[in-house]
């Protein structure tokens, strides 16, 4: 399950063998850059590493270490905004000073800057804390980003400056590599220039592969699990009994904990592989409160992560599968700017077809929110090659049928299905069991060929 693809092994070898202190791994989103970094750490037998990354990605690094590390590794992961102490005075704000955390100002065998495009602003506290104060202590610095320049060439300045590839000021960099215009609000960057010269600056330290280049190596259907932090739950909104006072709320929480304890007891006695998923099916409706609570805890971190991916154009569209209507309602509200569509079990067949057609054909509609049990048959969602399973069915066949709505004839791209979990003692193991069983069942189906034109040859 955790075997690397050939291009990932090549990327890991490139990281491990390079004599450059600074490197930029810039593979397109979804190609497994974290796994490549960890495999390179295995090659080099690096004993300790510091990761700085967006807050939503911090916990997942620990999850990936469990899967890909083969040598002892002490991993420290900080979100960008926890690498420094907040400014306390107006003077500090004016002088753009930053106070990095003292515990980070020490020797590091390796510093990984994940999603390094978040540090494109040279005056931002997090950029200055990481690049000016923490990075000088690192023996190696690996920047990781599928979108190293989101807007224009100016986004590359902070990394090229910190790595020593460009010695001038930000203003000099903009003058040399960016097209600008003067406006009533000041200078505005409208494009890039001298790209051949600019490319020569980063080519010695950058590796970038596109999905189109490694397509033959990718499976048509890829499954993976992603660890996320638990978000807040609006108990009074979704659990009516919580509106009756603090005692009623405490009773609700106690009931949820009891259901979680029962699930934990069952999971502790289930094998990791085999038919473990079969034991979950009878619980489909027996632990509804705790199941809904856990699924609602995933809403905020999933929205944060997927919104960022959509803004970065990591993919065009995504389908989310949920179990509870309350979770679907939250997603519909929070993904409003992406013109979401939804398919629920209570909808008529005509209403479902309207939602399906809109998602398939309207480029503005980038998110489909489907109720897992309602999306198993007679629906085509091939406009998306990304699937997020937030609330799976306890019957793996139902999850398989849902995922295959995206992975069917007419889908020209590999499909990635991510199962999101929070590490609360039950959800991690349950999601992994269901993911493995869903993957195994999907492999029993005839896999449609990857074709650019589904009508070709007819």
Q: Name the poorly predicted regions.
A: 446-458
- Biggest sheet: strand arrangement: 3-2-6-7-1-10
Report how far apart the termini are.
36 Å
Number of strands: 16
Q: Provide the residue-averaged pLDDT.
A: 89
Report on the structure:
This protein is of the alpha/beta class. It is 39% helix and 16% strand. It is built from 17 helices and 16 strands. It has helices spanning 6-17, 33-44, 55-68, 90-95, 125-134, 157-162, 170-177, 195-202, 211-214, 235-238, 246-268, 288-297, 299-311, 325-334, 349-361, 396-403, 427-442; strands at 22-25, 48-53, 74-79, 84-85, 99-100, 111-114, 141-144, 178-183, 186-192, 206-207, 221-227, 318-322, 341-343, 367-371, 386-389, 415-421. Helix 3 (55-68) links the parallel strand 2 (48-53) and strand 3. Helix 11 packs across helix 12 and helix 16 (396-403) packs across helix 17. The protein is globular and about 65 Å long. Mean pLDDT is 89; it is low at 446-458.
